Amino acid sequence: MMHSPPPDLDRVFAALSDPTRRALIERLDAEEELSVSELAAPLAMSLPAVMKHLDVLEKAGLIARQKVGRRVGCRLTAGPMEDAMGWLARYQRFWTESLDRLAAALETKG
Question: Which fold has domain 7-109?
Fold first, then answer.
């Protein structure tokens, strides 16, 4: 029986599948906000394009935005990424155990 990730994880994995969104995530910190302009500065794309990427990240729960006056600050929210890591950890254990069994089988034959 195939187990699929919960819908929230689908959003997280979809959001992280894009290299621009991963670059935005890498620049963010959970404790210090960066403005949208600061996040957009190193990217070779328009501010509206960056905003669309930020929308996807926010819908996935990976970032939080806060508007104060004219400034929109963004910060990382790590919870959804931790959930994704927990889901992936099951498969890491599977592959580790499988490779350990393979190594043991090869050692007994050699």
Answer: Arc Repressor Mutant, subunit A (1.10.10)
